[in-house]
Amino acid sequence: MHRLKILGWGLIVSAIVTGSLTVAVMRVVSLNQPAPPTQTQEDFSVLRSHLQAKNWQAADAETRRILDPWIHQQGDFLSPPAPTNIPPTVLQSLDRLWVEASNGQFGFSVQQRIWAEVRSQYPTDSAAAVKAFGDRVGWTRTQNQPDPTFIAYDWLIETELNSSPEAPVGHFPWVGVDWQRISAMMSAQSCGSCTIDAMYVQGERFNQYIPTLFDWVGTALSESEPISR
């Protein structure tokens, strides 16, 4: 009996120690998780180069590359986008680069002013406000523009954006998902819902993302400006 008691206490101590080790391991794993991305002067050098060259298409793609780790964490493009994860200083820096390079034609602050105007026209109808905003900045398809993808419907795809000097005010940076990613989604094998997923990314995602994004842009740009780089 005495030996059984000792054995019992040994098992309990072992469980406690093992549990402690498990917790310790979990903490180490947690600490080793990738940290949220940070932006430095070097991180914006590629974007700055594209903007200086007036290569709006390349600058737009680079802007998405910078922002996607916050908006679509772990590369999940099917979950609701999370623009509020973007640090205000990052939005401020990106906006300043776009506005300066385009002489006020493009940038988040330009888009935010347009969004505020259309939102005031449709205060209780978010979908109507989003559609009106898309029309203003040239992201939506006109009646004379056929849909080459059969999934895009109202919204232009990346390759249809207007990178000429005649692009509408606020046309860039675009807030959609690059066509290469959507095309890969549609062509995936053994995926019964891939077409539906692609239709969501190229359609309903705009209705979810635009109101949240520009509410956050308004908040972020109202904070103190970062140090000039």
Automatic annotation (TrEMBL):
It holds the Pfam family GUN4. Residues 39-176 form the GUN4-like domain. It comes from the Bacteria. GO terms for molecular function: tetrapyrrole binding. This is GUN4-like domain-containing protein. It comes from Desertifilum tharense IPPAS B-1220. The lineage of its organism: Bacteria, Bacillati, Cyanobacteriota, Cyanophyceae, Desertifilales.
